[in-house]
Amino acid sequence: MSCFYRVRCPSCGNEQIIYSHASTTVRCQICDEILAEPRGGRAKIKAQITYIYGKKTS
């Protein structure tokens, strides 16, 4: 199931929202650190996830 994550950059602490199945490398908008890399399905998240949007809790 796809969703969005709010992640915190390990280098500068900036928070931004990224897609769980990102098809391109996602970088921090402040310091250019890699936050997520595509893996053919769910992206490999390299930052701390602080919140998950759209995850159903049933």
Automatic annotation (TrEMBL):
Signal peptide as annotated in the record: none
Cofactor note: Binds 1 zinc ion per subunit.
Pfam family, any one: Ribosomal_S27e
First and last residues of each zinc finger (C4-type): 9-31
Molecular function as annotated in GO: structural constituent of ribosome; zinc ion binding
GO biological process annotation, one example: translation
UniProt keyword Zinc present: yes
Recorded GO CC terms: ribonucleoprotein complex; ribosome
Gene3D superfamilies with a match to the protein in the record: Zn-binding ribosomal proteins
Protein residues bound to Zn(2+): C9, C12, C28, C31
Record keywords: Metal-binding, Ribonucleoprotein, Ribosomal protein, Zinc, Zinc-finger
Necessary cofactors: Zn(2+)
Keyword Ribosomal protein set for record: yes
Cited HAMAP family: Ribosomal_eS27
Family affiliation: Belongs to the eukaryotic ribosomal protein eS27 family.
Record's subunit section: Part of the 30S ribosomal subunit.
Descriptive protein name: Small ribosomal subunit protein eS27
Organism: Candidatus Methanodesulfokora washburnensis
